[in-house]
Amino acid sequence: MRARWTAVAVVLMGGLLAGCQVAVSGSAGVSAADQQKADRLAAQKTAVAAALDALRQAPALQYDTTVKDASGKPADLTFRVTRDGDGIGTLPFEGQAVQIVQVGGELYVSANADYWKAHGLEDSSARFGTGWVHTVGTELPVDPGAKLAPGKLADELGKSLATLNQTAEPVRQKQPDGTEAYQLGGGLGTLQVTAAQPNRVVGFAPALIDPQGGAKLGAGFQVRPIAGDELKKFHTDFDNAVGGLGQPFEGLAQASVAVLNDKLDCKDFVGSCTTSVDVSTSVVGGDSDPKPVVHVTLTVEMSADALGSQTCTTQGDAAADATITMSCSVKFSLPNRTASYQVLAKPTAVAEVRVPFDANAVKQKLATSFAALGG
Predict the structure, then answer these.
(1) Which residues face 265 on adjacent strands?
(2) Where are the alpha helices (DSSP H) in the chain?
(3) pLDDT at 219
(4) Which keywords accompany this UniProt record (predicted)?
């Protein structure tokens, strides 16, 4: 019996040894080169995550880009925006330098007549090209408040990570200030994140935040956080921008007018004539609060045989779908003799929709929001 148990023990031991040999010979180790690459990829991934978190915490951001002006010379454009989505500056929409003021959810745009023509506003382009126009972010290639505020940018860039090649060997490139940044490339463009801590996003292709509209913003933006004294200056500049808006055009509505009940009154022996008319207004579109007003320009041409013609112009504001009474006067040079003349008056009126804008009230709200941000 003892010999049998010994034989069995030997067989079992041999089986165990054979099993161990098979396990060792079938295992595959990671090469030192592969491990080093994996470590570099992990470091890059950690840097990107930390940079996006830092974006979300920023009180405000500054965007810088360079485009070519009409003469082909490079022009530097800057746009600044707070965590709340309030922003001022210039963005390169479709090659045009477009000024932006976005405050309290309301968007105001200033661009030349060519920009408005390109967007189908041929009739209004001349007027819109002379001032600020109230519109909505969806009318622009990219809504600044919805895409460029710190938290919004972090969210959009986070979504874009799936389009970037995060398995290739990490590439670093020196920035103008000497810091090194990871260059994560993909079909929509490149994301740049500093390699050293504190990690931050320093540049990105606009297509990463909006594959369709982003391309209309150009090839790339440099971006950095704003805090401290820079944030205070941003507040001051914002107040100045708000003060310069005046009474913006309403880009989301159109007005029509009709001249009614024109009355002509001429003073004997004086040569002065006054035309009074009622102008009715009608507005289509627009839902701003407060309600838009209709800015009416009345022009009257008065003429008489032997006296020639004179023209007068006056302006006034009317509520939408209301009637306003307007008048203007001219004075003819009368000859030194007694005579009577038949005077004809031809009144015409044009109108544009304007947005009532209380700059002081907006500045008070900005003071509250910037105080919460530290500026």
Answers:
(1) 274
(2) 2-26, 32-57, 113-118, 125-128, 144-147, 150-160, 228-243, 359-373
(3) 85
(4) Signal
